Each structure stands twice: as C-alpha cells, then as structure tokens.
C-alpha cells in the first residue's frame, strides 16, 4: 500500500514555475496512469502560461484566491473550486490574494516536464 504524507513529499519547481509536492505518481508509487500533486504559489506569483499536448489536468483550490485563465477566458477562483483543463488549452493561474495559494493538481497521464510547453 502506497501512502505518501504531504510533509514527506520533496518539493520541486515545475516547468511552468510553480512549486509542487508530488503526492502520488509513477515516480513514488504503484500509480501509473495519473498523478496527484499539491501546488503552491506566493502572493502575486503566477505560473508561466503553458499547455500540455497530451495531459489533462484538474486544479482544486484549497487555500487562497486566484485568477485562472484558460484559453481566452479569465475567472476568479477560490477554495472549493475545481477547474478542468483539457489537453492543448493554454492556461495560467495567478495568486491574487494576500496568502499563499494552495491547490491540488491531478494529471492524466501523470505529470511530465516534457509535456509542458511554455507560451508567452
């Protein structure tokens, strides 16, 4: 049984500039088709606009306020909001609050730097 505590997951910076702790993925568990990570962004910080050619994502906001941009649409999001991000969609999230933004990110297939394409 694979049980990974958030405190034991080593943080790293993704290609889009967010700091994540990979909770479950092929790198640390029996999971092979998806991944689950906790992501954090400091107040005022944003991920670099990017897309994934293959991976679909779901962001689930735990703490903080943010502005989510998906394609040409931008929307305020906060705790309890789940955001669907289809493959190929340009997206970015910006922390608009005064506290650290904390959200869960699921990816299917699992997150890989090689499937992250940065955009200006």
Any chance you could write out the topology, listing elements then pairs?
Layout: E1 11-13, E2 19-24, E3 35-41, E4 50-51, E5 56-63, E6 66-70, E7 73-77, E8 82-85, E9 91-95, E10 101-108, E11 117-118
Antiparallel strand pairs: 1-2, 2-3, 3-10, 4-11, 5-8, 5-10, 6-7, 6-9
Task: Write up what this structure looks like.
The model has no long low-confidence stretch (mean pLDDT 95). The chain is built from no helices and eleven strands. The protein has one domain: Jelly Rolls (Sandwich), CATH 2.60.120.10. With 120 residues, the chain is mostly beta strands. Helices cover 0% and strands 46% of the residues.
Adjacency order of strands in the biggest sheet: 1-2-3-10-5-8
CATH superfamily annotation: Jelly Rolls
- Rg calculated over all Cα atoms: 13 Å
Shape: globular
**Second CATH tier, the architecture:** Sandwich
- Count the E strands: 11
Topology as H/E string?
A: EEEEEEEEEEE
Please indicate the percent range of residues in DSSP E strands (runs of 2 or more).
Answer: over 45%
What is the total number of structural domains? Answer: 1
Helical residue percent band: under 10%
Distance N to C terminus: 42 Å
**Which structural class is indicated by helix and strand composition?**
mainly beta
Largest sheet: 6 strands, antiparallel
Question: What is the CATH topology classification name?
Answer: Jelly Rolls
The tally of helices reads 0
CATH class: Mainly Beta
Unreliable stretches (pLDDT < 50, length at least 5) are none
**Taking all residues together, what is the mean pLDDT?**
95
